[in-house]
Design a protein that fits this description.
The structure holds two protein chains of two kinds. Chain A is built from six helices and no strands. Helix content of chain A is 83%, strand content 0%. Chain B is mainly alpha-helical. Chain B has a single domain, classed as Up-down Bundle (Cytochrome C Oxidase, Chain A), CATH 1.20.210.10. Classes of the chains: A mainly alpha, B mainly alpha. The structure holds protoporphyrin IX containing FE and copper (II) ion (CU). The site of protoporphyrin IX containing FE has 24 residues of chain B, from helix 2, helix 3 and helix 13.
């Protein structure tokens, strides 16, 4: 009736409900941040280089998701699957870098309970990382079906979700790492 | 429940039919029955704490002596259960699942397995909540609003496990309703019967769909807030702890940013039920269909801008308080508009006071009291006095009781023949109606009075407050409790009528009320797949008493020009003996 395929419509509604979750969390963070200029002194301990590299990785993985969609449009399930796996590899890289980053921070004594800045830092980035993980699992499922050249419309749907995960990070990176 | 053989491709056994079904009707009934079972717990809690309020220190039959901590968790669980485990599942998920595909003329929701998952998660959430009664320390007692620091720190709440299980149960419930809501919205957008245009959609489908969008748009920040509260409870963060730079009022903002739209999430489906019932028993076209739709949308939008009226005494900026007073008064306009349209629908109709109609009319009358008393609470000046008194309790029960019970009973008695293929007993239905309505009012009117006289809510024992423990005040409390006992006793009539009619009621035809909407085209009860032949829609849902027609109703699926009756595929109106 709307002309939008039902699967894609559902993805959009999922994203709408996700946006308000991150919106609430980041809104709360921003309000606190404005009230606490001294958090600057905490934020300088974040690793901008690791965060920047991860931004680059996620953006590239979104590119391969777009290419996968193109391949799926051509009906080329095999390359779509390959490109989706590449996207998932981007997600894995992101999480590995994150693991190293967090290990370094936690061993330097910046834990989730240290103070409110770090509480927000770990909560927001952690919630985002969960979304990356969930996205990777779905990517693998969709890649498996796409490789058999079936359900190719799913390639686009997971792509939309993956872009969203990417965009959330684009908000998190400056708010948590760059704002000093 | 389906008396018809489901189609041959799937020959489901008992488990597939009743417990593991993807059929929207089964899922709707599962939601509804689970909600009704939870209502027993919620009502039992109300019974126990009202007995304590009326007869402090006495041993309550079936419970025993009520300790202060018992009182707290009973009030908390009562509020939590009634909102999240009764009103939500019965009105939104129950009726939504059952009715949406039938009224849109399709065979099921677009994502049946997501739908099944939604119910399963909901069921799990109910189990978690009920389990929290039995953990060491007992169930959470920090009120259904769960304000920190009480909820964040078990040194204050003294329910280390109860608080966390409460949070977990609520979070699971939210997930269930988000999954269900996606189905409601996508199904309504994408799988209507051919010919059903946007303004041919029955009002109840509109209101449920708007409610689902509202829920989705408002619950997100609270999900984030719940994660923060969980971390405060279990990993030692200080999001809501002022001693560590946090802010307890943040939770109030996140909670009420959801909490206020939530009351419209509950109200809108109830309004939908009432509209469907009213037109059928007034035999009149719904007055101002489009205005009702637009008002519902406007109510939904404005409901995002009123939340801080719950926080007038929480130390918010007085300028913000005036702003939120104004938005709160504004939201009463579209709501009132819907009610006026309903009353105009009745005007000049040929009204039949059947049981569903009585419930629908009572809904309008009783909700009015809730709405009018809300004006006093929405205005910051008077709310500073009324805040957290029994006036508030009486006010919101005059909104919630009509929603959760009056509208639900209207819906259940109206669609019972469709759901189970039998009619409910009218006489006992009316006994149940009058008993409930009269007793309910005697239960809550006194609470307006005690509240105005200064009774604070959530008080375990008034004998500790000399100025409130007067004999006059106590006799009002006792009157309210007695009336509650009568209200509860009359629910037995409903349960007996329900069960009896399920097995012994007169067999219902497909369209016993002579209604227009598509669910009445399907057999009663509808088989798996709903319709024998998929319907095509020719007109809006409310063409009653159209001049120059023999019948006073005109179903949506009947072609305009009664075509040549011998032509292949031509459908003729059901010929009723005059
Ligand atoms: C069966 C009839 C009911 C009775 C007699 C009743 C009675 C009460 C009373 C007296 C309180 C205040 C307790 C106190 O502050 O000490 C209360 C609280 C509450 N009730 Fe009800 N109620 C009923 C049904 C409902 C329904 C149908 C709903 C909602 C759908 C509801 C929602 C609530 C909520 C949200 C609270 C606030 C709980 C809190 O303070 O945390 N109640 N109820
Ligand atoms: Cu409100």
């Amino acid at each position: 009736m709307t002309g939008i395929p039902t699967g894609r419509l559902a993805v959009w509604w999922v994203l709408a409900s996700e946006i308000v979750i991150f919106g609430g969390l980041l809104g709360a963070y921003i309000m606190h941040r404005i009230g606490h200029p001294e958090w600057e002194g905490q934020a300088i301990h974040t690793n901008v280089w690791a965060g920047g590299f991860n931004t680059f990785v996620l953006l590239s993985s979104s590119l391969s998701a777009v290419l996968a969609h193109q391949a799926a449009e051509r009906g080329d399930g095999k390359s779509a699957a390959r490109l989706l796996l590449l996207t998932a590899a981007g997600g894995a890289t992101f999480l590995i870098v994150k693991a190293f980053e967090w290990t370094a921070e936690i061993t330097s004594g910046f834990t989730i309970g240290s103070n409110l800045f770090w509480s927000f830092y770990y909560t927001a980035a952690g919630l985002h990382a969960l979304h990356v993980l969930a996205g990777m699992v779905i990517l693998l499922f969709v890649a498996a079906t796409a490789a058999k050249n079936i359900e190719l419309h799913r390639v686009e749907n997971i792509g939309i979700y993956w872009h969203f995960v990417d965009i959330v990070w684009i908000f998190l990176f400056p708010l948590l790492y760059i704002a000093k | 429940m389906t008396g018809h053989a489901p189609d041959a491709t799937r020959a489901p056994g008992f488990v597939r039919t009743y417990l593991w079904s993807t059929d929207h009707k089964t899922i709707g009934l599962q939601y509804m029955l689970t909600g009704m079972a939870m209502a027993l717990i919620g009502a039992f809690a109300a019974y126990v704490f009202r007995m304590q309020a009326a007869f402090p220190g006495a041993s309550v039959p079936l419970f025993g002596r009520v300790a202060a901590a018992d009182y707290n968790y009973l009030v908390t669980m009562h509020g939590t259960i009634m909102i999240f485990w009764v009103a939500m599942p019965v009105l939104l998920a129950g009726f939504g699942n059952y009715l949406i595909p039938l009224m849109l003329g399709c065979d099921d929701m677009v994502f049946p397995r997501v739908n099944r998952l939604s119910y399963q998660i909901f069921f799990l959430s109910s189990v978690v909540l009920v389990a929290s009664f039995f953990v060491p320390g007992g169930a959470f007692g920090g009120a259904w609003t769960a304000y920190p620091p009480l909820s964040a720190n078990s040194a204050y709440s003294m329910t280390p496990f109860g608080s966390t299980l409460w949070l977990l149960a609520v979070a699971l419930e939210f997930v269930a309703f988000l999954l269900g809501g996606i189905n409601f919205i996508t199904t309504t957008m994408n799988s209507r019967a051919p010919g059903m245009k946007m303004f041919d959609i029955p009002i109840i489908v509109w209101t449920i769909m708007i409610a689902a969008v509202l829920f989705m748009g408002s619950v997100g920040p609270l999900v984030a807030g719940a994660v923060m509260l969980l971390f405060d409870q279990v990993v030692g963060t200080g999001f809501y702890d002022p001693a560590r730079g946090g802010d307890p009022v943040l939770w109030q903002h996140l909670f009420w940013f959801f909490g206020h739209p939530e009351v419209y999430v509950l109200l809108l489906p109830a309004m939908g039920i009432v509209a469907e019932v009213m037109v059928v028993f007034a035999r009149k076209k719904l007055f101002a269909y489009r205005t009702i739709v637009y008002s519902a949308v406007a109510t939904g939008i404005i409901s995002f801008f009123v939340w801080a009226h719950h926080q007038f005494v929480a130390g918010i900026d007085p300028r913000m308080a005036s702003l939120f007073s104004v938005t709160t008064l504004i939201i009463s306009i579209p709501v009132a508009e819907m009610f006026f349209a309903y009353i105009a629908t009745l005007y000049g109709g040929s009204i039949r006071f059947s049981t569903p109609m009585l419930w629908a009319l009572a809904f309008v009358a009783e909700f009015l009291i809730g709405g009018v008393t809300g004006i006093f609470l929405g205005s910051a000046g008077s709310d500073i006095y009324f805040h957290d008194t029994y006036f508030v309790v009486a006010h919101f029960h005059y909104t919630f009781f009509p929603i959760a019970f009056l509208a639900a009973f209207a819906g259940i008695t109206f669609w019972f023949p469709k759901m189970f293929g039998r009619m409910m007993n009218e006489t006992w239905g009316k006994v149940h109606f009058w008993g409930t309505i009269i007793a309910f009012n005697i239960c809550f009117i006194p609470l307006f009075i005690t509240g105005t006289a200064g009774d604070h809510r959530r008080i375990f024992d008034y004998s500790m407050f000399a100025e409130l423990a007067t004999p006059e005040m106590q006799s009002l409390r006792i009157l309210a409790t007695r009336a509650l006992l009568v209200t509860l006793a009359f629910q037995v009539v409903f349960v007996v009528n329900f069960v009896y009619s399920l097995f012994r009621g007169t067999v219902a035809e497909a369209n016993p009320w002579k209604a227009n909407t598509l669910e009445w085209l399907a057999p009663s009860p509808p088989p798996h797949g709903n319709f024998v032949t998929m319907p095509v829609v020719y007109r809006g849902p409310y063409e009653y008493s159209v001049p120059n027609r023999d019948e006073d109703y005109w179903p949506q699926h009947e072609p305009d020009e009664p075509a040549d009756p011998d032509a292949p595929g031509a459908r003729r109106p059901l010929q009723q003996p005059a």
